[in-house]
Design brief:
The complex is a heterodimer.
Chain A (H helix, E strand, L loop, with lengths): L13 H22 L9 H14 L4 E5 L9 E5 L1 H25 L2 H20 L1 H19 L5 H16 L7 H22 L1 H7 L4 H4 L5 H20 L8 H21 L4 H11 L1
Antiparallel strand pairs in A: 1-2
Helix pairs in contact in A: 1-2, 1-3, 2-3, 2-11, 3-4, 3-5, 4-5, 5-6, 6-7, 7-10
Chain B lengths: L3 H4 L8 H15 L10 H19 L21 H11 L3 H9 L6 H13 L3 H14 L4 H25 L7 H17 L9
The chains are: A mainly alpha, B mainly alpha.
């Protein structure tokens, strides 16, 4: 369930876009450096958002460099790495590994098992560094599983579990801001879970797998989902507004006010994103 | 506590952005890490705490914040001792305990729905909390406390929509009021020169 927290590229200034890419590539590099080359397959945009929020709040020293990488051999890429990218890289690998473990247990999919073996070394390293966070992930996945088994039809209840997980992962230091960051992670996690569940309605119906939207007795699911998402985003925005975020604020605003809105529009109308539309138009001309 | 505006060295009525900027600069200046092996350590720490408190009080001023719910003393008048207990739980943010007590009650009046709504919002059941707030207001339309709660929730909700709308129209700097006043000015200028831009005024 990744990739629901993205930028709206067309609304960003070039330098903001470069910075965003820099954090994204920086996370990729941090994954490679700490947990090996294969761990880079778990790279995603949601974690990049986490990095930018934490960077904006704590303003750690950024190490910038221009490097080539396997994915972009033609041009050198700007990479921004700081201490929060290392933290988020560890979270990323722990989330990915535990997710695969869950898949293997549920579906006995060989693919997951293979991937698990590849990530094993990196995971052990990350686990050693952040044992508490790893326990939180394991416990939350267990709790989600329990709710899934009991066919829980209350999407708020299920998404709260995921929200709590994200909230706790968002806490970077034991300091004054931990309550604020917890709330931000909570509403962000809820948003991700709900949108992911809505996105999967058709697929889950076909495969006969668990989806709270397919179980809940609401007349208009679309309206209900929209309402839920809007409310959660409002609370997220309200919590974000309490933090003194100055650095990279335009990127954060872009994600919350435009990127997320676009993502929702695409999923609800099942239409293409603005970017693809424009690219197509350029091709036509 | 000292006047938060004074602590942050800003003028009264400063915007949120200004408050945030001022906080950032002062926090950097007095961050305890900078005075680790310094005799001024204690002083800096105290100053740092003061800045943090000032920032918090200004940011929570006109915001929806779960922590500033009024206690039973100001409420509707027919608050029973049981409701008083629940309210005191809510005040210290022990929402689960408050909810357990509420669930054990058989009589569900407007106050029940109001208190349940606070607990639900506090524990993340935002949508359900909203529904309960509506019910409470419908049951007792004249109660100011319930209404305020509802308005606070609505403000949070509309805040996001408005800001997202503004962002996507690039209206970060100008607003509707500015646009109108510019039009009026242009109209005045035109009239001075003998013409008329807006014929009705």
């Amino acid at each position: 369930m990744f990739g629901y927290v993205q930028i709206d590229k067309l609304e960003l200034k070039v330098r903001e876009y470069m910075a965003y890419k820099g954090y994204y590539c920086g996370l990729c590099m941090a994954l490679k450096k700490n947990y090996g080359n294969f761990s880079r397959f778990t790279l995603n945009y949601d974690m990049t958002y986490l990095i930018i929020v934490l960077t904006s709040l704590y303003e750690p020293i950024n190490n910038c460099c221009n490097k080539r990488c396997i994915a972009h051999p033609q041009n050198k890429q700007l990479m921004i790495i700081n201490e929060t990218s290392d933290y988020c890289a560890a979270l990323n690998i722990m989330l990915a590994y535990n997710n695969l473990k869950d898949d293997w247990k549920d579906e006995r999919s060989i693919k997951s098992l293979m991937a698990m073996m590849i990530f094993n070394r990196g995971y052990r390293k990350a686990k050693k560094k952040y044992p508490k966070k790893n326990n939180i992930i394991i416990e939350s996945i267990k709790e989600l599983e329990k709710l899934e088994e009991s066919n829980c039809s209350d999407i708020e209840k299920v998404s709260n579990v995921f929200g709590n997980l994200m909230g706790k992962l968002m806490i970077y230091k034991d300091d004054h801001w931990k309550e604020y960051l917890n709330n931000i992670g909570f509403y962000l996690g809820k948003y991700i879970y709900i949108l992911d569940a809505y996105d999967d309605i058709e697929k889950d119906k076909k495969n006969n797998s668990y989806n709270p939207f397919n179980l809940c007795k609401k007349d208009n699911i679309e309206e209900y989902a929209k309402n839920l998402l809007n409310l959660n985003l409002s609370f997220l925005d309200n919590e974000l507004d309490k933090l003194p975020l100055i650095k990279e604020k335009p990127i954060l605003d872009n994600i919350i006010y435009s990127g997320i809105k676009n993502k929702m529009k695409i999923i609800f109308s099942r239409e293409e994103c603005n970017e693809c539309k424009i690219e197509k138009q350029i091709e036509k001309n | 506590m000292r006047d938060p505006y004074e602590v942050l060295e800003i003028e009264r009525g400063a915007s949120k952005e200004e408050i945030k900027k001022a906080y950032r600069e002062l926090a950097k200046k007095y961050h305890p890490d900078r005075y680790a092996d310094n005799p001024l350590n204690d002083l800096a720490e105290e100053k740092f705490r003061e800045i943090q408190e000032a920032y918090e009080s200004l940011m929570n001023n006109n915001n929806y914040s779960n922590s500033n719910y009024s206690s039973g003393s100001q409420s509707s008048g027919y608050t029973s001792s049981e409701y008083m207990n629940i309210r005191s739980y809510i005040q210290v943010r022990r929402f689960q305990d408050a909810m357990n007590m509420l669930n054990n009650m058989s009589d569900k009046n407007a106050e029940w729905y109001y208190l349940m709504s606070i607990c639900l919002v506090g524990t993340g059941y935002t949508n359900q909390g909203f529904e309960y707030a509506k019910t409470a207001v419908n049951m007792a339309p004249n109660n100011i406390e319930y209404r305020n709660h509802m308005t606070r929730l609505q403000n949070v909700q509309n805040g996001y929509n408005t800001r997202a709308y503004q962002y996507n129209r690039g209206a970060n700097n100008s607003d509707a009021l500015g646009c109108c006043s510019q039009l009026v000015c242009a109209d005045c200028l035109c009239e001075c020169l003998g013409g008329d831009l807006i014929s009705c005024c």
